[in-house]
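Appendix B, record 7
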Amino acid sequence: MSKQSPTFELVTDDEIDPRSCRALWCAVLEEQFRLAMQTKAFDRPIETKLARRWFGSKDFFMVCSLAGVDGTWVLWGVRRHLAEQGVA
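Structure tokens (predicted):
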């Protein structure tokens, strides 16, 4: 039995939907915000801590850029909300 490597088709620029890409990165921001703010029973405390620390990181600003939002403005809002909730 031989192993075959999977074949991948390259995606061309004309096949990329910018709205879908933006929606993906907005969903990343939303999930990190949810995890940082609204911990659920199945969320581990370390995940919440890491999500809170993620805001303001280089990766955070990259995701904001890909989502088409101002990272500085989002960070200000997140930190303000955390402070209001007494977790900052």
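Remarks on this record: The two ends are 57 Å apart (CA to CA). The chain has a mean pLDDT of 87.
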